[in-house]
Specification:
Layout: H1 11-21, E1 23-24, H2 33-39, E2 44-47, H3 55-72, E3 76-82, H4 83-93, H5 102-105, H6 120-135, E4 144-149, H7 153-167, H8 169-179, H9 189-197, H10 205-217, H11 219-222, H12 228-253, H13 258-280, E5 289-292, H14 295-298, H15 314-322, E6 326-332, E7 335-340, E8 349-353, H16 361-366, E9 372-375, H17 382-386, E10 391-394, H18 405-408, E11 410-413, H19 415-418, E12 421-425, E13 427-428
Parallel strand pairs: 2-5, 2-6, 3-4, 3-5, 6-12, 7-13
Antiparallel strand pairs: 1-9, 7-8, 9-12, 10-11
Helix pairs in contact: 3-6, 7-8, 7-12, 8-10, 9-12, 10-12, 12-13
Amino acid sequence: MSPPPALAMGESAALEAVRLDAQQLHGAGSDYDSLLELVGDARLVLLGEASHGTHEFYRERARITRRLIEERGFQAVAVEGDWPDADRVSRYVQGSGEDADAEEALSGFRRFPTWMWRNADVLDFVGWLRAHNDRLEPERRRVGFYGLDLYSLGASMAAVVAYLEQVDPPAAARAKERYECLHPFSQDSSGYGEAVLLGVSEPCRRRVLEQLVELRRRAGDYLRPDGLLAEDRYFLAEQNATVVANAEEYYRTMFAGPAPSWNLRDRHMADTLDQLHVHLARHGDPGKIVVWEHNSHVGDARATEMTQRGELNLGQLMRERNGREVVLVGFTTYTGTVTAASQWGGEAERKQVRPAPPDSYEALLHATGIPAFMLCPLGESPSGRALREPRLQRAIGVIYRPESERSSHLFAASVSRQFDALVHIDVTRAVEPLERTGGWELTEPPETYPTAL
């Protein structure tokens, strides 16, 4: 494919640099060899996505993650999902849960947008994780599945109380009393912030912090029974108590503007990731974690216009805290279909993705004529230098409004500063929800569902 006529002076050189560096992806086992070489001994690999509803992004992240687990000893997958819901999946893949199969284990993900984790590709990957863990020797730690987000106010409160009822019933009664002020909002957490703003409800901050402090103060008693099981149970409870404390602050401050609540959320995810590493590495294990989140969280915010709005993100925080121990990988697409809603809380729809605008990274990558490829490493490679100049980059979350794409889904970024490697798949298709609504029509046979293998 020849460069489109719209390419400005200097664009042809950038296009040629990308073409020369592009490592084509054929679905072969060697596709990501250079990425694993780049990862080396790094203990954190963050895998992005340009949308929350693209089949190929989930599929390729799963392919990379399998190799990181099998060839680099990664022990955990951490996702942009809620802690209690992910814990249910973790118990299933580690063989300690009560769910009969992978689909049942994923049934905890009921909060909008359910298709983010209740989809055919995640079902397939969870089935693979269970099979992988079942093959491990008994003394080996099983690979876990963890949630980094803070939206699970009600579920996390219930999890803290349930844990304490087993190990310290009087403490469980105190936890119930402290959490009482948040219970009216457990099903409508955003309503808490609005009630505080209007003076209808008093802030619950002091009470939830008291609960977190008491849980940590009594950790020695709760960990007295030796073994990994006691440690894991306490760690899960402590993180749920942390979620409650940070969720309270998040919902109380969300009406103050987007930057404070965004930053609180990404700091929470970064802190959770650090705590998870410490927990996994406690007994001499490497504590290596692969993360699945959106590009807007994974790519270094300092290389995007986010920083001008006072926003930071997970990728930036991980680089600042862990240096070369972190590898950031972005994913892009030019056109296709995507699963998304038209408004918050709306039904999943199968939407057409408009071709990317001419002044975007996606348009330049599309002009290579290569259907699927990776640039790795970026940095000081010819393609990395060519992709350093800021351009538009597309970001589709759980909502996609093609009619307002310029204002809603495009932002400026320097991709080679944002990521260490980039995967581009030119034409992609919508991820397949496990529950398909009237707004989502299946037009081609699914690739994975319902094998879960």
